[in-house]
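Provenance and format

Records in this collection were gathered into a single text stream. Each protein contributes a sequence line and a C-alpha cell line. The two records reproduced below are adjacent in the stream.
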Amino acid sequence: MAQEQIWTELVKQAQKGRKEDMNKLAREAEGRLCAYIYRVTLNYDFTQDMSQEVLLQMVKSLHQLKSVESFWPWLYRIAQNKIQEHYKAKYKKSPAYGSAFYKNFLSQRAKYHQEDGLSHLLQKELSKKVVLAMKQMKRQYRAVLSLRCFEQLSYSEIAVAMDCSEVRARILFYRAKQALKKQLTHQGLKKGFLLVCLGLFGRLTAPAGAATTTVTASSVKVGVITAIIATAGTNMGIATVTATAVGLATMGGISVLHEAPLPERSEVKSINYTTQLRDTSQGPTSNLSKGAYEQWFSCPDGIDGPLFMRMQRWDAKQTNKLCVWLENDEGNYYYYCTDDKVYINNYRLFWSSLRVRRLPTDTADFTNFLSEIEGDLSGVEYTRDCQTGLLTSALDDRFDEARNFRTDYNYNTLNERLFEYDWPEDIPVIDERDRMHKRGWTYFRINGEINNQTISATGQIPFVYNASKEHPAWMRLTIGNELEIMDCNDGACLRRVDGTVIAVYPAGTFFKGLLRPWMGMHTIDIIRRDATRRRVAFRTRPAKNEEDVIVRVYYEDNRNNTELVYGIDMENDIIEDIRFEVRNRIIGSIVFSYLQDIEQAGDEFIEPAISQSPEVPIRPGVGILWLVDLAQGNLGM
C-alpha cells in the first residue's frame, strides 16, 4: 500500500473516535510535525511544547476535517497558526547568531540524533553556513521552503497549510528561494549550491530514522508567470527563474542544478555583486571600509548605454543594512540611516579613493590598462568566464577582518522595480539640487581659444535618463572662422562654415571626452573611461580648493605630446574647464558655463539639423582623441 494510502486509512480510523487509533495517529504524526516546527522556528524547546499543543488541537478538531487526503496540509495549518499566535504575543528577536547560535543548534540537534553517521558532517563549514543562512530568513519563508522541499506538498496543499491562495503560495515560495540564495551568497556560497544547501538543511533537521532528504530541481520551480508576479511586488526580487539546466550532479542523494551559461556581453541587462572596500582614511594598512557594499546595475539600452545604480551598504559582517544610494532615470538619491532622511544630490556617486569605477562587464584589456594606470588591487584574485570574458568571481584576501572575502557576479537576475524610488512617504526628503538639476536638463556654452582660434559652442545637456528623451544632448561648436562641429540625435558631422560637409560620424561622437551625466556615472569616471577606451594614460588628483578634481590626460605620438587638463566640479558633476598643452606648452583652454535659468535663453539654443547624404560615408569616431586632434590642429585633415 502506498504511503499516502496508509495515512488516509489511519486518519479515517482515527475519525471514528477510537482512542487507540487516535493515539496511533498522534504518535505517527509527531515526528514529521516536530521536524516542520523545528525547521520554521529553529528552537528545540519551543518545538517540543508547540508540537504537543498542535497534536492536542488535532485530536479536538479531527472530526472537522472534511477531506482525509488533506490531513497534512490541515495539520500544518494548525501548526502555522499557533506559531504565528505565539510570536505575535511574545515576539522577541533571538540574539543567537554566528558561532554561538550554531553551537546551540548542534546541541539541540543532538537530541534528535544520537548516532546517525552525520556527526562528522556537522562539523564542516558548509553545515554552519547553511544553518546560519536559514537563521537569517523570515519564519514564513522557512515554512514555505519546508512544506515544498521537505514535506513535498503541492502548491495547492501549501495554500491550505498557509491559509492563502495557490498563487500566493507560489509567490511566497519564489521569494523564499531568492531570499535563501541571497543569504547563502552572504555566507560565501554560490547560488548554484541552492539544492545542495536545501538538501543538507533537510538532513540536519530530519527526524531520527527518517529517509534521506532529496531536493530535486522540479520541486523548486515556480514557473515564469509566478516569477513575474512575484517580482512585481518586491523591490529586491529576481526577474525570472528560467535558468537552463546544463546538467545534474548528485551529492549524497541531493540533486544539484548547474547554473545557466553566462550571457554574452552584449546581452547583459543587469549586474549584482557584493564587495568590500578599503577605508582609505586609515592609510595603507589592511582595514575594512565601513562595510560591505552590495551593488546592482541596470542597463536598459545595453551595457554600453546608460546605467542605473543601486548600492546597499552593510556593516562589515553583512548582518545590518546601513545607508543606500539609488541613481535611476529620475535622480540621485542617498538614504542616510543615521537621521532617517533621503537626500537628492546633483552628483552621481564616485569612490572617495578617486579610483575609476570598474564594471564586471569591462573587458580584460580595459581592466588591465586601468591597472597599469592606477595600480592593481594586490590581494584580489579575479576569475573570468573564458567564453564571454565576463567576471564570474573575485577572492579578496586583503583584510584581516574578512579573510577570503568572496564576490560572485550575477547577470540578468534583477527586476527593474529595484531601481524605483521606494522609501516610505513619511521619510523627510532633503532636495539639495540646484535649479538646472531639478529641471533635469539645461543649456550650456563653451568659450575659449586654442592655437589662436576662437572656440565657441552652445548646446543642451540632460542630467538624467528620463530628461534625455525629451531634451537630448546636442552641441554646435565653432572653431575660428573655418570649421563647425554639429552633434545631435540624428548624427554628427564636421563641416566648413560655408556648409560643406567634410565628414559624417555617429551621434554622440563629439561628446566623448566631455560630460555625459545621463549615462549614469560621475563625470570624473566618464572622462577617464573614455581615455581608457583609447588606451590614453591619465592622472587624477584633488584640486587646491579640495572640492574639485583635476584629471590630466596624456597622449603621446611620434610628433607631439598632448595633454588635456580637466577641471571637474565634483559636487555639481560637471566640467568647469579644459586646458590644452602640446609639447609642454599651453596652447589654449575652453570654459564651460551652464544656465540655471533658461527662460531668457535666445535663438542660439536651437538644436542643429543634420541631413544624411549617401555620398558622404559615415566614419567611425575616434573617441576622446577628437580633442587631441583639436589641440594639434588636425581636425578636418
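Adjacent record:
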Amino acid sequence: MSDKFIWEPNDELVEQSNVNAFMKKIGVDNVTDLYKKSVENIEWFWSEVEKELGIHWFEPYSDVLDVSKGIPWATWFVGGKTNIAYNCLDRHALGEKKNKIAVIWEGEDGSIRKASYEDIYQQSVSIALFLKEQGVGKGDAVGVFMPMVPEIVSVIMAIARIGAVFVPIFSGYGSGAVATRLQDSGAKVMFTADGFLRRGKVVNMKEVADEAADQSPSIKKIVVFPRLGIDVPWNDGRDVRWDDVLSYKGDCPAEALDSEHMFMIIYTSGTTGRPKGAVHVHAGFNVKIAQEVYHNFDLKDNDILFWFTDMGWIMGPWEVVGAMTVGGTIFTYEGVPDYPHPGRLWEVIERHKITILGFSPTGVRAMMKYGTDHVKKYDLSSLRLLGSTGEPWNPEPYKWFFYNIGGGRCPIINISGGTEVGACFLAPLPIIPMKICSLGMPALGMDIDVFNEEGKPVRGEVGELVCKQPWPGMTRGLYKAPERYIETYWSRWENVWVHGDWASVDEDGYWFLHGRSDDTIKVAGKRIGPAEVESALVNHPAVQESAAIGVPDEVKGERIVCFVILKPGYDPDDSLKNELKNTAAEILGKTMVPSEIYWVKDLPRTRNAKILRRVIRKVFLGEDAGDLSSLENPAALQEIKKIKKGS
C-alpha cells in the first residue's frame, strides 16, 4: 500500500462493485474517465443513471434537462411522469421483493421490529386513503413529526403516493420550531407519536405537537402513533388514532406525477433569520439520491444500511429514498449511541449485522472518550463500508473510526453536500484509494471546483467550493422565498452555485474540506479554518474535542479563541493550556496560536452532531444567537454564556 493512502481497494471489491458494472455498461475504463464524461455531458450521464436504477416512468420524458428559465431554475426529465413511492415501494412490494425486509428498527428499550416491503405498502395505502378523505391532495403539505420508527417510512410513502408534500420535522424540536415549519408549509395534517425514549427518559411528542398545532391554523388533523402506549392529551375533533387510520382499506395506486412535482420541503436552520425550506421534487431527488447509495455506498441486496440520523435531517430521506429505490434494507434506531452503556452502538451493529454504517465525525469524537474496550466486546465483522458527513474530520478521530470500528478493512465514504443540494457535491467511490480525512473526489455528474476570491479555479490552496452546472437533486428554490434562494447561492458569480464551504484539492487530485467559509478566521491577514486549529489541539493526548472561533482584535483583525473538552484524567489548569498552545504553535506556527483557551464540558451542537461554531461566536461576543431550533444541548450554550460573563 502506498504511504499516501490509508486504504486501497482489492481487485475483488473493484470487480464486484456496482459502479464497475455501470462503467462496463457505458464503455468507460476508469474512474477518471467516468467522472470526466459525467460532467462533459450531464444530460447523457443522468439519463444513463436513471436507466441503470430502473426508474419507472408512467410517461417517458422528452428532454433530460431544461435551462430555459436560467441555470438556477433548471428542471430535469422534462415531461416525464413518475412517483417516488412507486419507485421506492410499489415495484418491490408488488413484485419479487414483497417479503424482503425493508426496515429494521430497534428502540432504546431493546424493542425490535421489522417491516417488509409488502408491510410498508399496505400501511401506506391505508394512510393515503385516510389523507384523501381529509381533503389532502396534490401539492398539499403534510407535517411528519415522528421518531425513527418503521411507520415513518409508511407515512412518507403515503404522502408521495397521492402527490402531497412531505414536510419532515426533527423529532427533538420544541413547539415553536415545529409550528414555524407547519405555518410556513401550510400543512393540513400532522403525523406524530405519543413520545419516544432518550437516555431512559420519555420525550413527550404529543404535547409538543398540540402546542405547535394550536399556533398553526392550517392543521386540521393530528395522527398519533402509539410508540410508548402512554396516556396523552386528546382532542376528539382533531386527533386521530393510528389504528383508525390503518382501518382504511381499498386501492390507491401511486399517482402519475410530473417529474418536477414537489416531493418534499425540508427546512434548514441558520443562525439568523427564519429556517429555509428547501424544495425537492419526485424525479430529480429520486435519481440523484439513489445513484449515490448505489454507486458510492455500493448497496447490494444483502446489505443493511444504517445512517445514525433523524428524518428531520437530509440523511433521513437520503437513507430511505436511496436504499429503497434499489430494493435494499435500512436500519433505524431510536436512542443515542452511548446509552444505556457506552458500547450500545457497537452492540446494535453486532446484533443486526449492519453492513454499512454512517456516523458523523463529531459522533466519533464523542465515542472516543470511552476508549476501545467497549468496542472490542462486539463483533463488527459484518461492516464492509463506513460513511460520514456533517463536519470536516480531524486525523486522529478518522483513524480511530477506520481502525477500531472498520478494523482497517472498511473504506470511509466521506461525503459532503447539504439539505439544499439534496445530495452530495463530494463523494468518493469505493473503488478508489482513500486518504486520511479526504472526501476523495467530486460526486459523479457534479461539476465541482474550488475558486479563489477572483472566481478563478485554484489547486493546492483553500478556496470556495462551487458547482458550475445544474444537477437533478438541486433544490427547486427555497419555499416562498425565490429571492433568498438566488441571493444565498447564485449571487456571487453568474450561474455558479457557491455553497459556503472552504475546500482544497491536493497534488494528487484529492479533495478536502476546511469548514464553513463564514466560520473562517483571519489572523493578521492570514486565513485559517477552524478545523485546522481544532485538529492541532486534538493532536494533544488530553484533548477529546474542541471548537475554534475568531473574535475581533484591534491589532490582528481577529484572534483565535478555543473551547476544549478534555479526556477523563486530565486536570484543566494553566500548565495544560500552555502545552496546548505549544502544540498549536508547532503545527500551525506562532501566528495561529489560540490567544485564549476555555475548558468546557460540552460544545453546542445539532442533533446530527454539527458543532454550532457561529452560535458559539455570537454568544461569546454577546450578540443575538439567532435561530436555535436545531440546538441539541442548551446547557452547553449556557456554559459559553457563563464564560463570557467571567471573561
